[in-house]
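Model the whole thing, not chain by chain.
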Amino acid sequence: MPKLIRSTGGVFEEVEDTFVAIEDEAADPGGDILVSFSRLKGGGEALAARSHGRLGVRLEPEDEIEDLEGRLAGVALVALAFPKFRDGRPFTAARLLRTRLGFKGEIRAVGDVLRDQAGFMVRCGFDAFVPADGATASSWAEAAGRHSHVYQRAADARAPAFVERQGE
Amino acid sequence: MYRYDAIDRAVLADRTAEFRDQVRRRLAGELTEDQFKPLRLMNGLYLQLHAYMLRVAVPYGSLNPVQMRALADIARRFDRGYGHFTTRTNIQFNWVKLDDAPDILDALAAVDLHAIQTSGNCIRNVTADPYAGAAADELEDPRVWCEAIRQWSSLHPEFSFLPRKFKIAVTASPHDRTAAKVHDIGLLLRRGRDGETGFEVIVGGGMGRTPYVGPTIRAYLPSDRLFSYLEAILRVYNRHGRRDNIYKARIKILVAALGAEAFAREVEAEWEKIGPEGDLPRAEIDRIGAAFTNPDFVADPASGDFEARRAAEPAFARFVRNNLKAHIRPGYGIVDISLKGIGETPGDISADQMDLVADLAERFGQGDIRSTHEQNLVLPHVRLEHVHEVWKALDAAGLATPNINLISDIIACPGLDYCALANARAICVAQDIARRFETPERAEAIGEFKIKISGCINACGHHHVGHIGILGVDKKGEEFYQLTLGGSGAEDAAVGKMLGPALPIDRVTDAVEAIVDAYLRERREGERFLDTLRRTGDAPFKEAVYAEAH
C-alpha cells in the first residue's frame, strides 16, 4: 500500500488510508469510499445520504472544479490527481476549492506526487499526500517547510513578504 | 537599484539549500535523471551538447558592480574565463560541472544572484527596458513593476508548473526596447485620463514555431490592479493551455484558438472573482519604488571637454553617434557597450571585460549596469564629461565597437556550437556577416539594420523579428539558412516574411549584401531599411538574392 501522509495543524504524520476507491459500476461496499467525479455527479443524492462511512471524490485535471459547487455536502475528501507531476492544474484546483468553494475537508494529492512539490501543494490547500517517490512523513515535512518566507498570498494562512514587511 | 532585504536573502538561501539537496540526491542515485531534469531546469541547469550550462538570472537586466565581478569570478573558477549574455538578458556559463553547480549557486547567492526560474515551465525573468530610469522618453520607471513581478513570480505555488514557459516584458517608453509584443505578456505603461498610470496589456505574442504579434486584451489597466490581473491571466492559462503537445502549449496558441476577445472575456471574468484581494498593497509598491529613486545625480553638471573632443576625434564622435543615447537629465548620457565586436561571438564577454565594466560602472556610472535583449550592456547614467574616459577604457578592452543598432549588431543564439536543439550554427554566420560590413562608414551609411539569427525553429535568436531574419535548418545533414524580411521587435512589431528557398551557408553573407545593396538603390531620403521594404514590398530584394540562382 502506498503510504498516506496527512497534515493536521502543520504536523505531518503517516496515517492509515480508510478510503477504498470503487469503480463507477461497482456496488457500494459501505465504509469510506472514493468515487469518480462522474459517479458523484450521477448519484450525488444517494451518495450524500449514505449513513455509514464517509464519501470521497477524485477529480482528474480536466474536471472543472467549479462543477463541485453545490455537490460538496457530505463530501469529506477531494482527491486531485497528478497524472504527471509536471501537470500544474491541480494546484489551481486545490486553491480554488479552498478559497472560492470554501471546502473544509481533506484535499489529497494523488498520482505522480513528489516531495519537491510539497511546499507548493501545502500553500495551495492540499493537506494529504500519497507520495510516489518514497517520501516519509519526516522528509515530506522537511520539504514542505523548506522556505521560511513566501512572496504571494495563496490558500494557506502564511503572511507573504509584503505583509511581514509592514510589521517592520 | 533595488537591494535585497533579509527576507529576499532568506528566500534565496532556502532555495539554494534545496537545490544542493536535490543534487545530492541525484548524485546518490536517489533521483533518476528523468526526475532530476525538471528540478535542475527550475534552477537553470541545462545539459548541452558538450557540458552542463548554467543560466543565471539577471532580473530585468539589472546588475551592480559587485555582482558583475562575482560573475567574472565564476567565469574564471568554474568556466573557461567567459560568459554569454542571452536574448533574455540573462548570462549563461557554458562549461559547468554538475557537482560544482551548488557551489556556483552559493557564490551567486552571496551577491544576491541566482538561477531560479531561468528555465522550466514557469514564469521566467521579466524583461525591462534597458534604459529604464534613464531614458529621456520614459513615462515612469518600469523597474518598480519588474521587481514587484520578480517577487510575485518567484516560487509561485500555483504557477510553477504551467503548460509551458512564460515571459513578461514591461516598458514605459513609446520606443519599445523590450520586444514586448512578442512576449507572453507585454505591459506597456500608459498615462490614464485621470493622470494616474496604468498598463496596456498585450497577451499571446511569441516566436518559436508559431510566431505571433500579441493582441491587446485590455487598453488600460490601472497599475494598482496589476497583480490580480496577472493572476487571472495565469490562471486561465494554467487551466486551459494545451498540455498534450509541447509545440502548442504556449499561451499564444490558447489566445489564438479562443480569439483575443473571448480570451479577454475569460480573463476579465476570473479577474472579477479574484478582486482587489489579489493586488499588492500600495505600501509595498512604494517601498520598492523608493529603491529606484536615485539620489546621486548632480543638477546640470558641466560637460567638460565632451563637445571639444567630439569635434576633434572622429572615432569618439562615431562612438557618440551610435552608442550614446539621450538621458532624462541634462549633462548625462546612456552609454551602450557593444558585445558585438567584429568577428566575436555575439553576447560573449570575458572575465576581464566583466571586471572592467564593473570598474567603469563604479567610477562613472553610479554602480548601475544593464543587459539588453539584444545581447549588449548599458551604463545608463554617465556624465557627459566622463564619456570620453569611459570610451577610451572600453576601446582598450575591445568593448567600444560603435555599432549599436547597425548591421553588425547581430543577435545570434548559441546554435550548433553549443546547443543540443540546434540544426545549424548561428555564431559563425553572425561573425561572417559582421566582417563583411566591418567598415564603420559603410555600416553607418546603411543605418539601422537588425539581423537576427536562430540555429533552429525555437527562435532563441529572435529571427522572426529581425529586419533580416536568418533561420538555420537541416537539409539532409547540411546546414541551410532560411531568410525572412521585414520583422520587427519594436513598437511597430511584425513577423518577417520568408523571402525564398533556403540558402547554403556559403551564400548567406552574399545574400545579405545583395539585400543591403538593393535597399541602398531603392531607399528614399530618411528611410530605414524597414521603411523601404514596407514601401516597395520584397520584390526588389527577392530579385537581388535569387536572380542569379535560376
